[in-house]
Amino acid sequence: MAAIPGIKLNIGVELPVIGFGVFQTPPAETISAVSEALRVGYRHIDTAALYGNEREVGQAIAASGLRRSDIFIETKIWINDFGYDETLHGFDKSAGKLGIEQIDLLILHQALPSAFDRTLGAYRALETLLKAGRVRAVGVSNFMVDHLERLLAETDIVPAVNQIEVHPYFQQRAVQDFGKAHGVVTQAWSPIGGITFYRGNGRSTLEDPTIVAIGKAHGKSPAQVMLRWHVEEGRQVIPKSVRPARIAENFDIFDFELSAAEIAAIDAHETGVRGGPDPATVTLETFSRIIPEA
What we know:
This protein is of the alpha/beta class. 40% of the residues lie in helices and 14% in strands. The chain has helices spanning 27-40, 54-63, 84-98, 116-131, 145-154, 173-181, 194-197, 209-218, 222-232, 244-251, 260-267, 284-287; strands spanning 6-8, 14-16, 20-21, 44-46, 72-77, 103-108, 135-141, 161-165, 185-189, 236-237. The strands form two sheets. The chain has an eight-stranded parallel sheet. A two-stranded antiparallel ribbon has the order 1-2.
């Protein structure tokens, strides 16, 4: 199998440009989905404490026959485990469920705007874990520019990634541009706009006429076109699926290139409409979830 292109993170660690996500994948289906992704060629698995499937991700990786060093494992600390000591324990819970001693990339799942001191405490715990070699890189998720500005002003280590909602209908250019200026890689969740059609809002990126036409010109699916668009613009992507055919399709994006005109046409689809929760509204009162022990 040919080597997967990588993105060099600011810490010097290389992250594959495409990973496999398991958001909303039931634990009972996670082992088979991750096993299939690894068989196809994915080498980056993205999970989170909140997803409730870290244990199954670890089991699939352990059973894969692949060397641990060949697989890049990413997970996230949920807001209930924010705070310095709490986040150190959150690492122990995640590592225990994954069955590993070192996590390749550990990130904060959200900012807590109404309790940002706890967010800072959590990030300082990530810095401690990085310095101790317990993690290879640290980052954040769903952080907006104001969150990043304060984080950079009050901590020592620049996040390696910021995982945010990015797809043709919602691109968050200001957040992307701020990250790029500071060496933070944008990691796109819902990269093919699944959040735009799973919730039945009537607009599907998979049926968008422009994206469909670009796909036909290359003999590729709309999903492959969108994933290629991300990669060519420098983002890392983590598509998800439990269907073997779709898992393989999403990975098959390295044998074609989009023209500048095609990329511009996709760029022009911005609607400004967010599909996920507004990061400004995330509070412990509204999003509290207790993360079980390992």
